[in-house]
Amino acid sequence: MNYEMFDAKKIIGEVTAAEADLNPGIVVVSTDSAPRTGMGEFIAKYPDRYYEVGIMEQAGAGVSAGLATTSKTPVFCAPAPFTTARPFEMFKIDIGYMRQNVKVIGRNCGFNYSDLGPTHFGLEDMALVRLIPGVVILAPMDASQLRGAMRAMLRCEGPVYLRIGTAPIPKIFDDGDFEIGKGFVVREGSDVAIITTGEISRNVFEAAEKLAAEGINVMVVAMPTVSPIDEELVIRAARQTGRIITVEEHFVVGGLGSAVCEVCAESSPVPVKRLGVPMEFLSAGQYTDLVKHCKLDADGIAETVKAFINNP
Amino acid sequence: MDELKKFALEIRIETLNMLSKHGFGHVGGSLSIADALAVLYGKHMKYDPKNPKWEGRDYLVLSKGHCGPALYSTLAIKGFFPREELLTINKLGTRLPSHTDKNLTPGIDMTTGALGQGVSCALGMALGLKLQGKKNIVYSIIGDGEAQEGQVWETMLIAPNKGLSNFIVILDNNRQQLDGFTDDISSLGDVCRKAEAFGWFAVDVDGHDLAAIDQAIEECKRSEKPGFINLKTIKGKGWPAKEAVLGNHALRGAAFEGVDEVLADLRRQLEAMQ
To answer: Do A27 and B131 touch (CB under 8 A)?
Structure first.
C-alpha cells in the first residue's frame, strides 16, 4: 500500500510548538536529545522554556517533576530506554506517584535504533511504564494519530508516556480527534481478531488484506492507547472471533499482548497468540531484517495468523 | 537567637516524643538537622501555615526523606497541623509517613525517600520559579550518605549551569550512614571544595551553631551562584548517649531506653529559657 509519508519528529515538534502558543506552561526538558526529537521549532520560538540539562536522565525526570510542581507542563523527551529503563524509579515516584503533569516521550522505540543494537532498542518500555499506576501509555499508529495523540497528551492532566519511532511514518487514517483510552475497529471480521498498536500496525493492515484474498476474514483492532486499555473493545473482539492475536514492536512480555491476555483471562477467556519480539537479546541489524526475524512483517504476520487458525 | 534555640529544642522534643511513642524511627539524622530546620523555619523561609500552598512561599525539599519526623515536628510547631497529629506517625491512614510525602502532608512540596531524587526535583522547582520571574527560594536538605548517589552530582552539575541563584542545598554532613561512618565507606572528602569546583557558592558551617547557620544562609541568598552549605553535624545530636555512635541511624523498641530522661532534660532546658 502506498501511503503519504511524514517525519514523526517534525510532527512532534510542530504540535509541541503550536500547543505552547496556547499554553505558556509547556516547557521542554532535554537530556541531550530534544533537537533529535524534533523540538527545533520549539527551541527557536521559546528558548527560555527549553531546558537542556545534559546526559543525565535520572535528574531529567526529577527536574521535570519539579517543574510540574510549579505549574509547568514539561515534555521530557529522549530515546525510549533512556526515559523509561534508566530513570525508572524517578518515573515511578517523581512522576507517577505524585501524579505530576509530566509528558514523557520515548522516541526511537522498538527496533528504530536498528544500527545501535540492544543498548538502544526500546523493547520493554511499555512493560515498565504499565507497572506505574495511573500513567497513560500512547503508541500512535500513523501520522494523523501521532498529531492527535500529541495534542491530547499536552491537553490532558496527569502523567503520560508516548512511544514513537522516528522513521518516516505513513498517514493511514484521517485527521481527527484522538481519544485517550479508546481503540477502534479498522476492519470487521470473524475468523480471528488481530489487536495491534504503534507503527508496526501498518504491516498488520497489509497482512489482513493478503489474508482476505485467501478467504480468511480477519478482524483488525487498533489500540493506540495501551494503558488504560480499552477493555470493552478487547472483550468484543474476543466474543466476536473466539481467538486473538496481538501484534506489537515490543517484547511479548509486559506490553499490549500481556494487557490483552489480562483482560481476556478475567473477562472473556479465549486463546491468545502474542506476536512481538521474543524474549531474547537481538543483535544490531537493519530495521527490516529485525522486523522480519521477529515475523512482524506482513508475510510473517499472515503466516502466524494461518498457523494459529489451524492450530490454536 | 534565643527564640531559634527554643525552637530547635522543641523540634528535638517533639521528634523524640513521637518516635519513642511509636517505637521506631530515624532518630539520628532527624536530630542532626533540627538546628538547621529551626533557622530555616524560624527566620529565613516565607510560608503561611494556614495556606500551605501560598504562592509566595519558599520551598523546602527534604531529599533525605527518612528524616521526615524532624520536619513534621517543625511544621506542627509552626501550626501547619495540630501537634497531637505527630503521634499518628506511621499509623494506618496517617498523613505523616516516615518519609515526606507531597500527596499527604500540608507543608510538604515533594515526595522523597528514594535517596538522590528529591534534590533533582527541587532543582526543577527552582527552574520553574525562575522562569516565572519569582523570587521564592528553594532549599533542599541532603544527607552525606545520600550524596554518594550519582543523581546528587547530576544536580550539582546542572544548577550552576542554569544560574540558579534561588537554589540552596544544605548538606547534613553528620558523617554517618546506615552501615557505619561515611569516611570508612565512601568518603565525600572535602565536599565544599568539590561544590566550589562545580560552580557553587559553598560554605563550611558548624551545623549546631544557630548564628553560623543563619549567616551561611544569608550569604547563600546574597550570592549570584547556587548556594551549598556543608553543615558539619553530629548524628543523634541532643541525645548524648546516641551522639556519633554506631547504630543510631534508626532506633526500634528497646533501643529507645533512656529516652524519658533525655526528654525530661530537654524540657528542663526549654523551661529555663522561657
So the answer is: yes
d(CA A137, CA A159): 9
pLDDT tens digits along B114-136: 999 999 999 999 999 999 999 99
Scanning every residue of chain B, which has its alpha carbon at the shortest distance from the alpha carbon of A24? Answer: B132
B226 at A interface, C-beta within 8 A = no
ipTM of the complex: 0.90
**Closest Cβ opposite residue B114 in set A64, A67, A93:** A93
Instruction: Tell me whether residues A98 and B131 touch, CB distance under 8 A.
Output: no
Instruction: Report the gap between the CA of A212 and the closest CA in chain B (Å).
Output: 53
Please give the CATH number for the structural domain made up of A4-171.
3.40.50.970
B38-47 mean pLDDT: 98
Class level of CATH domain A184-306: alpha beta
SS3 sequence, B50-114? CCCCCCCCCEEEECCHHHHHHHHHHHHHCCCCCHHHHHHCCCCCCCCCCCCCCCCCCCCCCCCCC
Which pTM does this prediction carry?
A: 0.94
Q: Which residue has the cell 543523634?
A: B236
**Residues B131, A61: C-beta atoms closer than 8 Å:** no
Q: How far is B3 from chain A (nearest CA, A)?
A: 32
Decide if B93 touches A, using CB distance below 8 A: no
CATH fold of B2-273: Rossmann fold (3.40.50)
Whether the CB-CB separation of B103 and B76 falls below 8 Å is answered with: no
Residues of B in contact with A76 (CB under 8 A): none
Common-topology check for domains A4-171 and A184-306: yes
Where exactly are the structural domains of chain B? 2-273
Strand (E) or helix (H) holding A275: strand A272-277
